[in-house]
Amino acid sequence: xxxxxxxxxxxxxxxxxxxxxxxxxxxxxxxxxxxxxxxxxxxxxxxxxxxxxxxxxxxxxxxxxxxxxxxxxxxxxxxxxxxxxxxxxxxxxxxxxxxxxxxxxxxxxxxxxxxxxxxxxxxxxxxxxxxxxxxxxxxxxxxxxxxxxxxxxxxxxxxxxxxxxxxxxxxxxxxxxxxxxxxxxxxxxxxxxxxxxxxxxxxxxxxxxxxxx
Length: 213
Ligand SMILES: Cc1cc2nc3c(=O)[nH]c(=O)nc-3n(C[C@H](O)[C@H](O)[C@H](O)COP(=O)(O)O)c2cc1C
Description:
Blueprint: E1 15-21, H1 26-40, E2 44-49, H2 55-63, E3 66-74, E4 77-78, H3 80-87, H4 90-95, E5 102-109, H5 116-129, E6 133-134, E7 162-165, H6 177-203
Parallel strand pairs: 1-2, 1-3, 3-5, 5-6, 5-7
Antiparallel strand pairs: 3-4
The structure holds flavin mononucleotide.
InterPro entries: Flavodoxin/NO_synth, Flavodoxin_CS, Flavoprotein-like_sf, FMN_Rdtase-like_dom
Protein name: NAD(P)H dehydrogenase (Quinone)
GO molecular function, one term: NAD(P)H dehydrogenase (quinone) activity
């Protein structure tokens, strides 16, 4: 067995952290689906709600090979809760301690569009500021032809990450099954991409050090 992950674990079983904010539980349902998908992909998964991060949780995050960021869309962007978490990573951003880790994102809102693309853009920019490698959804758009339906994977037609629409009066267990499956797909994809990257790094180290100034 090769032990060469960021945290010394088996590279064939990358460590994936699902770190997310949910005000009312709907995005929690999706975070659990992302986590299940990452487990399907062979990853060791930790689910971290940003509202209750402990020192141990920050250590887990720092040791992860991949982070999948999730947030409800509030006011057309990431929630204040998620942004508060993001701003707590400023020192890590300055030191580059998350550099070359894998990242991806998912969001959820009430409206079918709901300006969720702005949220995914913010998550991707957050990852880029940390010099992380962003993984897209890897699915074509569903529900976009006469043969399609709301039960298609990626029914809302996003490319940058996974997006869900949940009726504002729905309970968390009423999140649309197609959105749950789309999030599950994202988790699995991130696990598999991270595994490929970890194995590749044993053959060809990443050019991860900035050029000396
Ligand atoms: C303060 C606030 C702002 C919201 N802004 C949006 C929005 O911009 N677009 C949208 O479609 N839904 C919006 N919603 C609806 C939520 O995105 C939706 O209810 C979502 O399922 C909440 O997820 P959560 O339970 O994980 O917090 C907003 C809800 C709240 C409370």
